[in-house]
Amino acid sequence: MDEEFQAGTRGLRYAHHKGLAVVVMEPLRAGRLARPPEKVAKLWANAAAHGTPQEWGLRWVWNHPEVTVVLSGMSTMGQVCRKRHLR
């Protein structure tokens, strides 16, 4: 999604090639990717690896070695991590 929007993936690679830090803002599309369509949610539920939509979205961003930092606005601890990780 949005790989061709603004600088896109091509711009990401270009900036990295030039030695520039790459900052990704709103990696979850202002929360829209946290609520995937039912068809997508079913695919993820049956995947070999499990995670929340938020984890999948952030994982996708961090799988790009060119990314320096990710800025994602969060307003609750539940959005930051799952309770089992807080033990």
Structure description:
By secondary structure, the chain is mostly helical. It has one domain. Helices cover 37% and strands 7% of the residues. It contains 4 helices and 2 strands, in the order H-E-H-H-E-H. Strands 1-2 form a two-stranded parallel ribbon. It is globular. It starts with 7 loop residues before the first helix and ends in a 7-residue tail after the last helix. The mean pLDDT is 79.
Task: State the gist of this model.
By secondary structure, the chain is mainly alpha-helical. 37% of the residues lie in helices and 7% in strands. The chain has one domain (8-86).
Separation of the first and last Cα atoms: 34 Å
Strand tally is 2
Main pleated-sheet profile: 2 strands, parallel
Spatially, the strands of the biggest sheet line up as 1-2
Helix content: 25-40%
The helix-strand sequence is HEHHEH
Content of β-strand: 5-15%
How many helical stretches?
4
The radius of gyration computed from the alpha-carbon positions, rounded to a whole number of angstroms, is 15 Å
Which structural class is indicated by helix and strand composition? Answer: mainly alpha
Task: Count the domains.
Answer: 1
User: Stretches where pLDDT falls below 50 for ≥5 residues?
Assistant: none
Query: For the residues shown, what is the average pLDDT?
Result: 79
Task: Choose one word for the global shape.
Answer: globular
